[in-house]
Write a structure and sequence with these properties.
This protein is α/β, with parallel strands linked by helices. Helices cover 32% and strands 22% of the residues. Strands 3-4-2-1-5-6-8-7 form an eight-stranded mixed sheet, sandwiched between helices. It comes from Neptunomonas japonica JAMM 1380.
Length: 185
């Protein structure tokens, strides 16, 4: 009887310690240190859709056309494309909690400030300061509000700064500066 009572007390103590810590998966993901959620880069390339949370890995992909480490989901991308998450070396063994995947799925909010790019099949480079604007463009395929800068990107690409209802009347000076800093332009 004493052993049974001790077991009940121990179980009650554990429940009081852990039972009150009910958090969602989203809350847990958002608190993982070094989430690297301040930027996101997406590329539609040769029938696949690539997503990166690291500028260096993204640039290596643009140079080589592949990533050293990746997580592949066949049919998981927009329009049923194969979805490829380009991973940093520190993320290669993670089964979950990779910022690129979590932000793409919508289970991780972007840091503030945020910077994003989509390299589209049309050769244009779309630049964002909002993950929500990036998601909307990914879904629709077009940016309703934008500031277009022809031939000012790397390799003379047209750069489209994506805006929204709140900032559509202003030239995106800060975003343009951030873009130029990324590419040393």
């Amino acid at each position: 009887m004493k052993k049974q009572l001790a077991g009940i007390i121990t179980a009650a103590a554990l429940l009081s310690l852990y039972g009150c810590q009910s958090t969602s998966v989203k809350d847990n993901v958002a608190t993982i240190p070094d989430m690297n959620n301040q930027d996101l880069y997406e590329v539609s390339h040769e029938g696949r859709y690539y997503v990166f949370d690291d500028f260096k890995v993204y640039q290596e992909f643009l140079t080589v056309g592949e990533t050293s480490y990746r997580k592949v989901l066949i049919g998981g991308g927009p329009n049923g494309q194969t979805l490829v998450y380009g991973l940093r070396g520190v993320d290669k063994k993670k089964l979950s909690g990779v910022a690129a995947e979590e932000m793409f799925k919508g289970s991780l909010q972007a840091a503030d400030p945020f910077y994003g790019e989509i390299r589209a099949d049309d050769g244009r480079l779309y630049v964002f300061d909002s993950l929500d604007d990036m998601k909307a463009m990914r879904m629709v395929g077009e940016a309703p509000y934008r500031y277009t800068d022809i031939g000012t990107g790397p390799d003379k690409q047209t750069v489209v700064y994506v805006l929204n209802k709140q900032n559509k009347k202003y030239k995106p000076e800060a975003l343009m500066m951030k873009f130029k800093q990324h590419y040393n332009l």
